[in-house]
Design goal:
alpha+beta; 10 helices; 292 residues; Aminopeptidase; globular
Length: 292
């Protein structure tokens, strides 16, 4: 049986060490997500044959291990060990390249690709330049925002903005009468992000107009050349604010990162439409495996 332990901020150095050596593009491996969403789902970790293994005990999801590559049979052995404590354990976030390299994986797992949880990956430079006819409308909306709100400011977020940011996000949700498990959980994840601000590797920007938040975004490193945007909210009454926060976030990240991961659409039609409208360069697939 694998001995899992609670994953907390004291394990951030361990996560950094493993993920720096063995980077993963899926946003679930982001240290900021592991700390915030991981706290919600009480994620746990273990070291199995020198590999870092993370499990979501609520749903019994075992993340593909971080470390030197294992053979398919070894992955099945790992899941069998997990099943001693978590009988419904299944493997998630299997890298696409691994499934191509090891077609025999299907002998040990029933594989499925879950489109709603695949991450949208964009070129940071292209998100700033917005070249081409298909993105021209977004560029026009950014120009309209600049003209309508010439006195706006772009500020770097810090822990002192905690109350304002959470209040803005709660207002955003309330005014749309939005409920549901995910949206309620997202607000809790945002609260944890702000509470842990000085411990996790997150950064953010705020768009202010007349000393009031108009939009904000929170992001963090994913790999050496990729950042992930975790939260992005805007005032819908300010035309162009959605496009402007996207643009300013990309501009902020472009000097340090080639790629921007904007996470998944969670099978939500509106979110899917918004993410597809920016023409992703590629998708980081979400592949799961139920053990046979």
């Amino acid at each position: 049986m694998i001995e899992f332990k609670p994953l907390t901020t004291e394990h951030i150095p361990l996560l950094i060490a493993y993920l720096r050596e063995h980077p993963r593009e899926n946003c679930d491996y982001s240290i900021s997500n592991l700390m915030t969403w991981g706290k919600i789902y009480t994620d746990m970790y273990a070291i199995w044959k020198d590999r870092l293994v993370i499990i979501n005990p609520k749903y019994q999801y075992v993340c593909y291990p971080v470390g030197q590559e294992l053979r398919p049979m070894e992955l099945r052995d790992m899941i069998s060990d997990c099943q001693e404590q978590y009988p419904e354990a299944q493997l998630i976030l299997i890298p696409e390249q691994y499934t191509i390299k090891h077609p025999e994986l299907s002998e040990y797992f029933t594989l499925s690709e879950q489109d709603g949880w695949a991450d949208y990956i964009y070129s940071a430079e292209r998100m700033v330049n917005l070249s081409g006819k298909k993105l021209a409308k977004k560029k026009n909306l950014i120009s309209q925002f600049n003209r309508a709100y010439p006195g706006h400011k772009v500020l770097e977020m810090n822990a002192g903005h905690c109350a304002e940011v959470i209040s803005f996000a709660a207002k955003w949700k309330r005014e749309r009468a939005l409920e549901g498990i995910y949206l309620n959980t997202e607000l809790k994840a945002l609260q944890y992000s702000m509470e842990m601000w000085d411990e996790i590797p997150s950064q953010g920007i705020i768009i202010c107009h007349q000393h009031t938040i108009s939009a904000f975004s929170i992001f963090s490193p994913q790999t050496a050349d990729m950042a992930t945007v975790h939260f992005e909210k805007y005032d819908p009454d300010m035309k162009g604010s959605a496009q402007y926060i996207n643009y300013e976030t990309s501009r902020h990240l472009m000097n340090d990162y080639k790629w921007i991961n904007r996470e998944s659409d969670m099978d939500l039609d509106g979110l899917r439409q918004a993410k597809r409208s920016y023409l992703p360069d590629y998708m980081a697939k979400f592949i799961a495996g139920i053990p046979k």
